[in-house]
Known about the structure:
By secondary structure, the protein is an all-alpha fold. 66% of the residues lie in helices and 0% in strands. It has 4 helices and no strands.
Amino acid sequence: MGELFRSEEIQLIQLFIQFDAAHDTVEELGHLGKVQFRDLNPEDTAFQRNFVNDVKRCDEMENRISTIMDELERESLLGNVLIKEGLEEEKMYTMDQLEAKLEQEERELVAENNHTEQLERRKNELTELKHVLEKDSTFFSRSW
Length: 144
């Protein structure tokens, strides 16, 4: 198969694709590596484009991933998670599935952090009570 060289013949075509199939179609064309796209609306700013909400969603998902990764690194769990869940098989997610999965993971992480804080507080309270009881027992043993 030939590659795109300057001397190769090219054709200018225009495709009309249903909006629902546009993403998959453009992705497949991109994988072929034989297509060059033209912007037919160069006067539109990035915020006037159809996909601006998807870009915002991707940015929010990236922030969630960063938060989760930072927390895992802080707890020194990153290696364990990657080994267990991991990169053994690549799974393809739609944007909605990935967003839902990240929201779920973030909720679980927040819940686990809250539980850890509660357990730490309870441990401190019990340790304090233990010390009080130890001091009390020495005090009462002296008084007898």
